[in-house]
Amino acid sequence: MEHSEETRRMELPNTETVRRGPSKLELTFIESPKDFMKDFKVIFDLSIIREITLGRSPENMVIIPDPTVSRKHAVITMVGNELLIKDLNSTNGTYVLDGGTFKRVSEYRFNGDVVVRLGYYTVIKLSLMTEENA
């Protein structure tokens, strides 16, 4: 019994034509009450991690050492090809930089770079990276 006819070579589509969604999220601390946190970067692989929690509590994925940040402050999740940052009813709010001023949001969708302030003193930049620019 010959099996070679059943084993066919699969043609993989050209990677140039395949438009993949965002694959990684880079989180960079711009401002923090703790100097050692400034310019600190974390990169998340969005194909593995579906939810990124932010807050003061050690159970969060990103622990933010800022007394004005709630224990469970915000969460970032993938929604289609966009990311959604959602405030978890924090005391001091989640703000997105829009036109030079921070505006308080309960949730905000983005698919590029966004600057977010958590509480009063912590400012982070969220950058989506696709396969092409990763």
Q: Approximately how much beta-strand content do the residues carry?
A: 35-45%
Helix amount, in percent? Answer: under 10%
Structural classification: mainly beta
For the record, give the distance between the C-alpha atoms at the N and C termini, rounded to a whole number. Answer: 47 Å
Output the strand order for the largest sheet: 2-1-11-10-7-8
What would the CATH topology be? Tumour Suppressor Smad4
Topology pattern, helix = H, strand = E: EEEEEEEEEEE
Number of strand elements: 11
List low-pLDDT spans.
14-19
CATH class: Mainly Beta
| Basic shape | globular
Q: Please indicate the count of domains.
A: 1
Number of helices: 0
Average pLDDT: 87
Do you know the CATH architecture? Sandwich
Could you give a short account of the major beta sheet?
6 strands, antiparallel
Radius of gyration: 19 Å
Pfam families: FHA
Domain FHA: 52-96
Protein name: FHA domain containing protein
